């Protein structure tokens, strides 16, 4: 697949004539999807944390949503605990997401999904989501998995995996989870509505209501292999 190329033309009209400068902001390059690796992040991936946080901040600025601010330490810990998934193109950061448990491990969320702008539209978010979703189910098979999102792409991916829209009272009542909404521009609405609803859509995947396997056997095997090799339960 080819990257888009932004051609910038600066034109200067003066008595001497027209002068112009042409520059290409992004080198034309071929990104082969098979060269993008999806991995359960490990401690050595901490070198990517600051890039991940910058990319999340930039995306939130563009979307005007505000963010659940995560510290370097928080994300690095997710990597150490085998709760994060990375997409890498060689040694370049392409995408990220992580999982977290809430309410005594009765609930799990997949959060912080981000794909670097250079790699969007290639199906990477979908692959990352398959990994975080599988990681969550292998580690906490009885937990309900939920998502709180205003993003079309995430809603689409959740729906494909079998999540259904639910009211907020079916999500965790763990204060620590809702605390994460404080950085959002709509936090006042959430509080005014007593946490019952807001701008985001709550979506839930309940293991008791699902039979059959929405992700590929390859992803399940790969995540299992990683968990066994690292001794993660
Ligand atoms: C949203 C985001 C993660 C998508 O990453 P991506 O790698 O480009 O997504 P994919 O190519 O894997 O697409 C996954 C699905 O979402 C759809 N999709 C992707 N971007 C979309 C958009 N902006 N609007 C609607 N649907 C979108 C794709 O069509 C695809 O659906 P399909 O399988 O039915 O065709 C990426 O654009 C991003 O990081 N954005 C900024 C941060 C953000 O919005 N995060 C989500 C927080 S809720």
- The CATH homology group name: Gcn5-related N-acetyltransferase (GNAT)
Largest sheet: 7 strands, mixed
Q: Any idea of the CATH class?
A: Alpha Beta
Query: Which descriptor suits the 3D outline?
Result: globular
Please, could you describe this protein's structure?
- The protein has helices spanning 49-63, 72-80, 124-139, 152-161, 175-179, 187-192, 217-230; strands at residues 7-14, 17-24, 36-40, 84-89, 92-102, 107-115, 144-149, 164-166, 201-205.
- The longest helix is centred in the middle third of the chain and has 16 residues, at 124-139.
- It is built from seven helices and nine strands; from the N terminus they run βββααβββαβαβααβα.
- By secondary structure, the protein is an alpha+beta fold.
- The protein binds coenzyme A (COA).
- Coenzyme A is lined by residues 59, 63, 113-115, 120-126, 149, 151-154, 156-157.
Provide key terms for this protein.
seven-stranded mixed beta sheet; alpha+beta; 233 residues; two-stranded antiparallel sheet; binds coenzyme A; Aminopeptidase
Set down the secondary structure blueprint.
Layout: E1 7-14, E2 17-24, E3 36-40, H1 49-63, H2 72-80, E4 84-89, E5 92-102, E6 107-115, H3 124-139, E7 144-149, H4 152-161, E8 164-166, H5 175-179, H6 187-192, E9 201-205, H7 217-230
Parallel strand pairs: 6-7
Antiparallel strand pairs: 1-2, 3-4, 4-5, 5-6, 7-9, 8-9
This protein binds coenzyme A.
Tell me briefly what this model is.
The chain has 233 residues and is an alpha+beta fold. Helix content is 32%, strand content 26%.
